[in-house]
Amino acid sequence: MKQKTTHERNNGIYYTPPELANFAAKLGIANVDSSILDPCYGDGALLLAAHERLRQLGSISPARQIFGYDIAPRSENVRGNKLTRLFHKSKLKKRNFFSAIEERRNKFDVILMNPPFVRHQLILKRKQKYLRKIVNNSSILPVTSDLWAYFVIHSLKFLREGGNFVAILPWSFLYSDFAKRLRERLLEKFGSLHVIVLGKRMFEGAEERILVLVGRSFGLSSTKIGVHYSFNVPKKRISWTTAEKKIWLGSPWLALLNGDIESVLSDLGKKLGFDSLGRFAKIRIGTVTGANNFFILEREVAKRMELPRRILKPIITHTRDLRKLTIDSSDDIKHVIMLIPEDFELPQSLKKHIKGGEKEGLNKRYHTEKRVKWYSIPQQEPPDGFLHYMTKEIPFLVLNSNGLLSTNTVHQVEFSDGVDENTKRWIQFSMLTSISQVSAELVGRTYGGGVLKIEPTSAGKILVYPGNGDRFPKELQNKLNACLLKGKRLDAMKLADKWMIANLSVSREEIDFIRQCYQNIRDLRLGKNTIQTNN
After folding, report:
1. CA angle, 379 then 382 then 388, to 5°
2. CATH dotted code for 6-253
3. Rounded to an integer, what distance in angstroms lies between the CA atom of residue 359 and that of residue 285?
4. Which of 163, 231, 338, 487 to pair with 239, CA 20 to 30 A apart?
5. What is the pLDDT of residues 481-528, one digit of tens each?
6. Phi, psi of 471 (to 5 degrees)
7. Ranges of each domain in the chain
8. Can you tell me the distance from the alpha carbon of 522 to that of 511, in angstroms, rounded to the nearest whole number?
């Protein structure tokens, strides 16, 4: 692998792989007589791809139709580079694109580019002032704009009406604050816009993930945008998810997540043997009392009231009780629920408690009024496990070995006949993987404060891994428990993902992408302004 020079590292220069260059050229060039401009041609990959594309379309002299700028082209230092053989030096100018004037009189049919990914903090103030003057409208790009955004805006001055525009850009185009105005301008300038988001890291020695932006019919305007995710450069026909204008100007990432990511997740899940949780268990809401303050008491309070022990059952009242993979006798459950049979002979202490409830009108509530005896909750068997109903953090599955019930703030999980303990452990483990967590985020709904709410029916759609008959490793369970007990759910998630990479047919890049999706969805749910692009 060729090492990047200091100049290339400092200036955010990533050279375009041939496969990506050919893909971009095919997207942008449709006519044999098209004239093409690359405003920052670097090692010439896009120019060569454009030359080949024109040749395939039937052009006799494609080199005459192609023009390029670069202030420090790499091609000068590469012996035998095709550029020197194919293009006259008058077509490839070693020059600052922003100083170009004469070429704007002879505009181009297609612009292809992979501009430098220099963050705004690294742009010198005098250069930033110069760029803003060239762009000539400070309202288009705020001072926090990265260098590539200036290339996009300035290059539009070189495009003919009806022309096409293809740019290789970082993921930040979809979510950064400074790119919002740019997305709006592009919507105003092109008859159609499409974005292909690539999950694979395409540049040597770089963590930056990229997308390909395609604008067609310059001079018209759009109301809808097509978005598509592909892990690698697409080789088949692209199926588009439509993003409306409101989403495009707000959070275009959502359109991608709600469309293609579901398909990607489903394909990956099938490949690894994931299936929906509902295939293995029934998820139901917890016990509905109709009056929690009456039926649910602290253990010490129930003891002081001298209530019969046989009608008291331990109960989980809050998701904070879900601290590890299994609730057992070592857990200090502080609350009990009164389960009074209809034919139970009431002692004086209980009669007094019931009379107090009636004075408060508890017997006239929606749920209590429907019962034969308002204070007799229908008997329930303890579930096999519990699942978070509403949480800001990572929801996971907890097995119930202590005969507990839960209120309706915690879901109860009842496994189907034939689901053995080993399979339950695998399902628990998988709930902590990025695959299950992205699945949970997609089926859930966001409530106030960024809370993720997962209804029972939706919970049944979460993708989980049943283990396919393999024995669940005890040491993995212990490590996951250690993370959860410390409140480090993200660490548990990393551990689960690491195990999948090492033991299942899934690559680190695939899991990295799914994890990136999880982080992005979670950040959007929590209302964070910045979406992370690197792990």
Report:
1. 115
2. 3.40.50.150
3. 29
4. 163
5. 999 999 999 999 999 999 999 999 898 888 988 887 888 778 767 765
6. -75, 135
7. 6-253, 259-280+416-528
8. 16
